[in-house]
C-alpha cells in the first residue's frame, strides 16, 4: 500500500451523520438501500449502500454512520449518491457499517 502524507489525509472529509430515512433500491445491480443521512451543518445527503445482509431499513433509521463527504456525487442508475457511507467487509464480504461507539453531534469531523 502506498504511503500518503498527513496533509493528503487531512483532505479527506470524514463526517458522522444520522440515517433519517432508508428505502429499498430495487434498480441497483446488487441489493442496496437508498439512505438519507443528516450531516448536521452540511445538510441532508443521499447515499446508496449495499448493506442489506446485516441491516433492515427500520433498524437503520437513527443509526450514526461515518461518511466521506467530499468525494463528489456519483450516479448509480437513476440515483445520485452524494456521500460514501463507510464500512468493513465481514468474512463473507458483506458490509458492517463504520460507526462511532457513542453518539456525537451530526456533522462532526473524524480527527
Q: What percent of the residues sit in helical stretches (DSSP H or I)?
A: under 10%
Strands of the biggest beta sheet: in what spatial order? 3-2-1-4-7
Structural class: mainly beta
Q: Distance between the terminal alpha carbons, to the nearest Å?
A: 22 Å
Main pleated-sheet profile? 5 strands, antiparallel
Number of helices: 2
Structural shape: globular
Mean pLDDT: 95
- Radius of gyration (CA) equals 14 Å
Uncertain stretches: none
Count the E strands: 9
Strand content: 35-45%
Task: Give the SSE string.
Answer: HEEEHEEEEEE
Can you put this structure into words, describing what you see?
The chain is mostly beta strands. It is built from two helices and nine strands, in the order H-E-E-E-H-E-E-E-E-E-E. It has helices at 6-10, 57-60; strands spanning 14-24, 33-38, 44-49, 64-68, 74-76, 79-81, 84-85, 87-89, 95-97. Strands 3-2-1-4-7 form a five-stranded antiparallel sheet. Strands 5-6 form a two-stranded antiparallel sheet. It has a two-stranded antiparallel sheet with strand order 8-9. The longest helix is centred in the N-terminal third of the chain and has 5 residues, at 6-10. It is globular. The two termini are 22 Å apart. The model has no long low-confidence stretch (mean pLDDT 95).
What attributes characterize this protein structure?
single chain, 111 residues, mainly beta, 5-stranded antiparallel beta sheet, two-stranded antiparallel ribbon, 2 helices, 9 strands, 38% strand, globular
Amino acid at each position: 500500500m502506498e504511503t500518503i502524507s498527513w496533509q493528503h489525509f487531512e483532505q479527506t472529509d470524514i463526517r458522522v451523520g444520522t440515517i433519517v430515512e432508508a428505502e429499498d433500491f430495487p434498480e441497483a445491480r446488487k441489493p442496496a438501500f437508498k439512505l438519507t443521512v443528516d450531516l448536521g451543518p452540511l445538510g441532508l445527503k443521499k447515499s446508496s449502500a449495499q448493506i442489506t445482509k446485516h441491516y433492515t431499513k427500520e433498524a437503520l433509521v437513527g443509526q450514526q454512520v461515518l461518511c466521506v463527504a467530499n468525494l463528489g456525487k456519483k450516479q448509480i442508475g437513476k440515483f445520485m449518491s452524494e456521500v460514501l457511507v463507510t464500512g468493513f467487509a465481514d468474512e463473507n464480504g458483506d458490509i458492517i457499517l463504520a460507526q462511532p461507539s457513542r453518539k456525537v453531534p451530526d456533522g462532526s469531523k473524524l480527527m
